[in-house]
Specification:
Blueprint lengths: L2 E5 L5 E3 L11 E3 L2 E2 L24 E5 L2 H10 L9 E3 L9 H5 L1 H11 L4 E5 L8 H10 L2 E6 L5 H7 L6 H14 L3 E7 L10 H13 L5 E3 L7 H14 L4 H7 L17 H17 L16 H19 L5 H10 L6 H6 L11 H11 L1
Parallel strand pairs: 1-5, 3-6, 6-7, 7-8, 8-9, 9-10
Antiparallel strand pairs: 2-3, 4-5
Helix pairs in contact: 1-3, 3-4, 7-10, 11-12
The structure holds iron/sulfur cluster.
Iron/sulfur cluster binds next to loops.
């Protein structure tokens, strides 16, 4: 049984120090704490989120989100409209949303203030808000990413027991693309679940079905990460249903299984990620499906900064996913999108090299693109 606790919070909008280079968000909103979907690999179980152990049944509903968000945006002189991710520690369209509508209330405020929105969900309930999402897309930018980790309904039932089967989730995207002209929509193949959803057939089927479902992209980020309570929860379930896989996980994440504590590594072995990601890049090429989301480009002084940093960060993503050195390009892109003035003005003063991580090569690249 699910219990709902209504609680006041001091803030509703989180501003990130750096824009996320995969999802492109500057801000984040969680209308709820806890998530009824209860996926067994969910990172929100990690100790750092301070959520209740049974975070799928004890849901905290944030009070007065509409008023708080409106007040925060109206009263902020330093905030610039940029992408708000509706996700994080909970799915914005888990069942609680049908009752309490915190996500919809936030969307209404974001639409009023012309903020672009990125929804990350596994739920069909997102289709309820198609009209407002389409208007946000028309006026600024809107993206809906549906997380799907496998096309196999049995494996999905084990990993994500309380969400629609994969075919229904692909159908969410198809419906959005059929009905809306202004929403970018695609698949988050995040995480790739080792030894359950990573065979050639699994990966190719994910890309092929995404293409058939009219996806604009399929975004992937390598193998599942493992951290303290989240890893323990996942391994407990894995041991019950697929005990033969525990040994393989011990090798991949370098730990000795102990139901009381996890002492393995956070990310899977680098060589594993390299193999999986390069297969996915090949399948994306084969089915002509992009693996990056097109970002929001504002009309103010940030315009060229965002265009150029998008190119740098797209390249850095490819390098990172294929196990190549990407740090300098990545940080140059991150720093450029944080600038308080236009690259054109900085270039006119011949000061591009003063931007952190902009070396000779990147300076030449920027100049070429500015021209
Ligand atoms: S839908 Fe997302 S936030 Fe909710 S339990 Fe699953 S992974 Fe976690």
């Amino acid at each position: 049984m699910v219990t709902y606790t209504h609680k006041e919070f001091k803030s509703i909008l989180i501003k990130r120090k750096f824009i996320d280079s995969w999802f492109w968000e500057r801000y984040g909103i969680n209308g709820y704490n806890g998530c009824e979907h209860s996926c067994i690999y969910c990172d929100s179980r990690s100790a750092k989120y301070y959520l209740p152990a049974d975070f799928g049944h004890d849901i905290i509903v944030k009070k007065n989100v509409r008023e708080m968000l409106d007040k925060r945006i109206s009263g902020a002189r330093t905030l610039l409209p940029d992408i708000v991710a509706m996700s994080g520690a909970s799915d914005p369209y888990h069942p609680a949303e049908a009752k309490f509508k915190n996500t919809l209330q936030c969307l209404e405020v974001l639409e009023k203030h012309k903020y672009p929105v990125h929804i990350i969900t596994k739920s069909k309930l997102v289709l309820r808000d198609l009209e407002i999402l389409d208007r946000i897309g028309k006026n600024t930018w809107c993206c809906v990413s549906v997380t799907i980790t496998t096309t196999n309904p049995e494996k999905a039932g084990f990993l994500e027991p309380r969400v629609p089967v994969p075919a229904e989730r692909f159908n969410i995207i198809k419906t959005i693309k059929d009905k809306s002209m202004h929403i970018q929509a695609g698949v988050f193949l995040i995480p790739v679940v080792p030894y359950l959803c990573d065979s050639n057939e699994d990966l190719e089927d994910m890309v092929r079905t995404s293409k058939k479902s009219l996806c604009d992209y399929i975004l992937f980020g390598g193998a599942m990460t493992m951290r303290d309570n989240q890893a323990l929860w996942y391994l407990k379930h894995l041991k019950q249903k697929y005990p033969e896989l525990i040994r393989k996980y011990e090798e991949l994440y370098r730990f000795k299984h102990d139901p009381e504590q996890y002492n393995g590594i956070y990310g899977a072995d680098e060589s594993y990620n390299k193999i999986v990601n390069s297969k996915l890049f090949d399948f994306c090429k084969k089915y002509d499906l992009p693996y990056r989301i097109k970002r929001f480009i504002p009309g103010d002084f940030r315009r060229l900064n965002y265009i150029i940093s998008e190119r740098l960060l797209n390249h850095a993503y490819y390098l990172q996913m294929t196990g190549q050195k990407s740090s300098n390009i990545y940080w140059a892109g991150m720093n450029i999108q944080n600038l308080k003035e236009s690259l054109t003005d900085i270039a006119a003063r011949n000061e591009l090299r003063k931007i952190r991580n902009v070396d000779n090569r990147i300076e030449t690249y920027i100049k070429k693109n500015l021209n």
